[in-house]
Amino acid sequence: MNFYSIRHLTRFRYKHPVSESIMETRMHPRSDYNQHCLSFSLSVSPRCRVFSYRDHHGNHVQHFDIPGDHHQLVIVAESLVEQQMQVEVPAFLAPDAWSALDAMIDEGDYGEMLLPSTFAQPTPALLELAKKLNVVRRDDPLMVVHELNKQIFEYFEYVPRSTRVDSPIDEAIASHQGVCQDFAHTMIALLRHIGIPARYVSGYLYRGREDHDRSTPDATHAWVEVLLPHLNWVGLDPTNDLIAYNRHIRTAVGRDYADVPPTHGVFRGNTESELYVAVQVEASNEAPPLDRKLPIPDDWTVLVERAQQPPERILPILDIQQMQQQQ
Fold first, then answer.
1. What's the angle, vertex CA 91, arms to CA 87 and CA 93, rounded to 5?
2. Which CATH class is domain 2-83+261-323?
3. Quick one: CA torsion of 253, 259, 261, 266, rounded to 10 degrees?
4. Would you say 325 and 277 are in contact if contact means Cβ atoms under 8 Å apart?
5. Residue 36 CB coordination number (10 Å)
6. Which one, 28, 56, 63, 185, has least CB within 10 Å?
7. 166 Cβ contact partners less than 8 Å away, ≥ 6 residues apart
8. Nearest to 235, CA basis, from 158, 308, 316, 149
9. How much is the pLDDT for 314?
């Protein structure tokens, strides 16, 4: 059994004051078959009231409105998550696995995870890649998934900031470079192309001293879950050529990144914004006290202290711009 303490800092800094910020966050870890969120808190500066709801994928969503003049918005999410050990994923399934998968699809509600979505489109470049990698129905579904996970890992070079949050997968396919969301979107589109339901997972990846993941350790992470007979949803991480076992901490699932950005919102004002994100994940074999406070890094201290500031006064409405963050 593993326990993870997570702190996720997000800061939006504005060149000129904005008069209002409206924001949704998806940073609350999920509680499901092998993972349980024991505690969660969200601190916001300037101070405000935070509300929450569940979206149609079962993700926890926090939302808030900050009326008043402010130069920056700081969000600090803190979580304690317990994970139970999962059963090893086999190398292959039974000979009738394709027909068993089709029967699951006919009997279940998996249409959303089979159809094209905002960032997982069957473009000509994607279909050409499918031919190149021989992504067709052969062997059994799990063998194809294992092989594709490794092929995507080898096809792409992990290069931070090589794409944007709204980049189509064609850019990453053409350059052979991308970040974890590009790896996930490409794999999802390829799997859906051959009738395997696949969904996007947003969360965190814990990196120990012995781990050599190529994804950035102080950022959020993204990977893929695939529906398979006898196994249900299986997580795969094409960025690092891994099965998503106990180091992967799930916050949200959806069709692609458009469904699950860690932050998504608008501000009122006509100015440029700068985004800074930092993530800390600590692991332990025993549950730490629920009221335990993680040590605050030096470069976070001032930002966290500002969460105690009172709200500013309300100003007239100006233009609205959209803000997102990349994984």
1. 90
2. mainly beta
3. -150
4. yes
5. 15
6. 56
7. 324
8. 149
9. 36
Q: Which residues pair with 78 in a beta bridge?
A: 7, 41
Q: What angle do CA 171, 147, 206 make, to 5 degrees?
A: 75
Show the tokens assigned to 167: 């980049």
DSSP class of 289: P
* pTM score of the predicted model: 0.89
Cα 240 to Cα 277: distance, rounded to the nearest angstrom: 21
DSSP letters for 219-281 = S-EEEEEEEETTTEEEEEETTTTEE--TTEEEEEEESSGGG--SEEEEEESSS-EEEEEEEEE
Of residues 226, 184, 186, the one with CA closest to residue 205: 184
Predicted local confidence at residue 217, as pLDDT: 80
Instruction: Return all residues near 263 (Cβ < 8 A) that are at least 6 apart.
Output: 10, 23, 24, 25, 75, 323, 324, 325
Q: Using one digit for the tens of pLDDT, what is the confidence trace for 253-274? A: 999 999 999 999 999 999 999 9
DSSP characters over 63-82: EEEEEEEEEEEEEEEEEEEE
Which backbone phi and psi does 156 adopt, to 5 degrees?
Answer: -100, 145
Q: Are 253 and 309 in contact (CB under 8 A)?
A: no
User: Which neighbouring-strand residues pair with 35?
Assistant: 83
In CATH, what number does 97-245 get?
3.10.620.30
Q: Where are the domains of the chain?
A: 2-83+261-323, 97-245
Mean pLDDT of 48-56: 96
